[in-house]
């Protein structure tokens, strides 16, 4: 790993440090929940540029940071792109069924509100 690669490594909490209150806080914001729903629907890593949010770039960066620091997603650099994946296995091991329940409830709410 080069010095430049080290400078581009983002901090993520170890599974033992992921807290339920931080995860719930991260998922309580509609923009962040939208990001998580998109990631959950994709089998692939998604670049930050994939997400079109109706907020400024700095606010988008804030939302991704909250999700990363809470342990909901993992971010890695691929060239100049910051790639995102859900930490499904970590979250399922720590809080069985939580992510699935939240995503199911979010889908039901989206359906209800669109009627």
From TrEMBL:
Domain of life: Bacteria
InterPro entries attached to this UniProt entry: HTH_ArsR_DNA-bd_dom, HTH_MetalResp_TranReg, WH-like_DNA-bd_sf, WH_DNA-bd_sf
Keyword set includes DNA-binding: yes
SMART domains, per database record: HTH_ARSR (SM00418)
Protein name: Helix-turn-helix domain-containing protein
Transmembrane regions listed in the UniProt entry: none
Domain called HTH arsR-type: residue spans: 12-106
Keyword Transcription regulation: yes
Keyword line: DNA-binding, Transcription, Transcription regulation
């Amino acid at each position: 790993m080069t010095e430049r690669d080290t400078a581009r490594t983002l901090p993520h909490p170890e599974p033992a440090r992921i807290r339920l209150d931080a995860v719930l806080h991260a998922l309580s914001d509609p923009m962040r929940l939208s990001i998580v729903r998109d990631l959950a629907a994709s089998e692939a890593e998604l670049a930050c540029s994939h997400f079109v949010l109706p907020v400024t770039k700095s606010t988008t960066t804030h939302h991704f940071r909250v999700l990363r620091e809470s342990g909901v997603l993992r971010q890695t650099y691929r060239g100049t792109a910051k790639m995102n994946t859900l930490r499904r296995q970590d979250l399922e091991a720590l809080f069985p069924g939580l992510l699935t329940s939240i995503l199911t409830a979010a889908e039901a709410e989206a359906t209800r509100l669109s009627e």
